[in-house]
Amino acid sequence: MPQIKRSPKVYDVCVIGSGAAGGAAAKVLTEGGLEVALLEAGPPLHPDTDYKEHVWPYQLAHRGAGIGGAGYEDFGRTELMAPNGSWTIDGEPYTSAPGSNFRWFRSRIVGGRTNHWGRIALRFAEVDFRARSTDGLGDDWPITYQDLAPYYDKVEAYIGVFGSKENIPSAPDGVFLPPPKPRCTEVLVKKACDKLGVLCVPSRLAIITQSVNGRPPCHYCDQCGRGCKSASNFSSSQVLIPPALATGRLTLITNAMAREILVGADGKANAVSYVDKTTRTEQQVRARAFVVAASTCESTRLLLNSRSSLFPQGIANSSGVVGRHLMDSVGSDGAGYFPQLEKMPPHNHDGVGGMHLYMPWWKFGRKNDFLRGYHIEFGGGRSMPGVGQFHGVCRHYEGYGAGLKQKCKQLYGAFIGFAGRGEMIPNERTYCEIDPDVTDQWGIPVLRFHFDWSDNEIKMAKGMQETFRAIVEAAGGTYLTRTESTGKRPFGISEGGEIIHEVGTVRMGKNPRTSALNEFCQAHDVKNLFVTDGACLVTNPDKNPTLTILALSWRASEYLLDQAKKGNL
Question: Is residue 165 part of a domain?
Fold first, then answer.
């Protein structure tokens, strides 16, 4: 047996994962006076060298596409994008059960997936916390919107979110910076939405338009997907972890692949075992409390692999719900061609690296063909990373020489893309578990996914497509997307995991028999163990979940801090 190296120090808290939840926990706990160890499975992040924010494609090998190009398996990610986020990681597989197909985007770098997040920052609405009471499906949260609202305020004020106050029931207002002005394609869509009675308002993104905490405002280079050297857009690596390090009470341990949470005879967690990926040795960090924040499915995998005589189904899993209730956002995309945009004189289409306007759910309070709702994201123009990017036009036309160049130049910028993002209701056929036969290169058993949409989600995707078509035609365009009502992806519905909003597998609840965590993300079974990432969510509304994850982790960390000071852990 190789010797396991244990940390001589016993930390107050060990946080596992450095993304949104882990970064928020590290900041709150260290500034509250606790000594914290933060484990990250990837390497450190160096924005000045790791980000390709202002690099031109011709400055990289294969014009940034990578050797062999970036195909479907990596979903179009290239060397120009923020580093170490991928659908595939060499030596770290996952599996899908027969008949299922789940795509799992993972990040291995300090800051986690906040380096790759589109930074759409939407609050859950009051009704989102009481879904079952509203329509009888799913479950209500153990907390209300009013419980979380002060933490939304804290997060938005600290990280910076632009937007406008609109008093829309499905999209609560927040603490907003001024939004950027709409671009011409957004004005075109806004006018069509006004004709149809579809709400279209300034979007809410975690990108600052005024200086916040010494960070300069966005300079509108439209390169957010590549990272942001000025930290004008939010990432845990640049906004949350630096102040935690500045306290002198944070120990950041990188390239640490968490394997198992260990428990003592008293039933409390007392250490986390991890593989030092650099030396390929087994290490342990000891602490008085643990915050699991490795991202929804990684956290689930860690809990399920933490088996002992006290917890034969995995730590904190006496209820058997860990891994169940897996949800992703319902997605369906479309695109329209707008001849009037061909005549638009070339001009600067830059702005933030995302939408300046969006459509929140507007059919609330009425009967629809499906339960719950969706919002719509859209974009176009001639910006290099945008929907209308030049190589996207080239991909759709055959030929070569002057004729192809003329066609591409004519159509470049004349398209607008639409993306619906809706709520999935959890079902018993969709979950993740430990694969009994497959391990990764570190010897850690991997996850196996089961995924299935219900009729409700398919009807929602149909509704998205109908709305996209209506907006395009109202704007004088031609809707181009063709979808089928049958097959593996009816109405263009996304594959499981494709939208990268997977949540719900270690959910909160009042009843320990039907939930794993209490209202403060504290395990019912293990009082010094907290899970604060997307795994703790009870429902997955149409809003992108990261802002809510930040608020929940901030709230749970303040509670943990209070309990630690009282000696209750």
Answer: no
Element (H, E) at 219: none
Q: Residue 274: beta bridge partners?
A: 258, 283
Q: Give residue 120's pLDDT.
A: 97
Domain limits for position 388: 177-224+330-422+454-492
260 phi/psi in degrees, rounded to 5: -160, 145
As a whole number of angstroms, the distance between CA 445 and CA 436 comes to: 7
Q: Quote the CA–CA distance of 378 and 481 in Å, as a whole number.
A: 14
Looking up tokens 């509704």 gives 463
Extract the tokens encoding 182.
């709409």
Helices then strands (H, E): number in the chain?
13, 18
Alpha helices, H only, 336-411:
339-342, 390-394, 401-411
Burial profile 501-517: b = 16 or more Cβ within 10 angstroms, e = fewer? bbbbbbbbbeeeeebbb
Task: Tell whether 532 and 566 lie within a shared domain.
Answer: yes
Within this chain, do residues 354 and 415 fall inside the same structural domain, yes or no? yes
Residue at 130 is within a domain: yes
Task: List, for residues 200-209, the tens digit of each pLDDT value.
Answer: 999 999 999 9
Is beta strand 256-263 parallel, antiparallel or unpaired with respect to 250-253?
unpaired
Residues 267 and 184 in one domain: no
Backbone phi, then psi, for 474, in 5-degree steps? Answer: -65, -25
Least confident of 76-80, 170-174, 244-248, 451-455: 76-80
Taking only the tens place, the pLDDT of each residue in 485-540 is 988 899 999 999 999 999 999 999 999 999 999 999 999 999 999 999 999 999 99
**Residues 518 and 555 grouped into a single domain:** yes
Which pTM does this prediction carry? 0.95
Is 546 contained in some domain?
A: yes
How many structural domains compose the chain?
2
For helices 455-474 and 184-196, angle between their N-to-C axes, nearest 10 degrees: 110
Q: Are residues 294 and 344 in the same domain?
A: no
User: Which CATH number do you get for residue 251?
Assistant: 3.50.50.60
Q: Does residue 401 share a domain with residue 478?
A: yes
346 and 395 in one domain?
yes
Is 127 a residue whose pLDDT tops 90? yes
SS (H, E, C) 286-337: EEEEEEECCCHHHHHHHHHHCCCCCCCCCCCCCCCCCCCCCECCEEEEEEEE
Residue where a domain stops, chosen among 492, 522, 540: 492
| Inter-residue contact 298 to 106 (CB < 8 Å) | yes
What's the pLDDT tens digit per position in 52-75? 888 877 787 776 665 444 333 454
Residue 172 placed within a domain: no
Same structural domain for residues 90 and 20?
yes
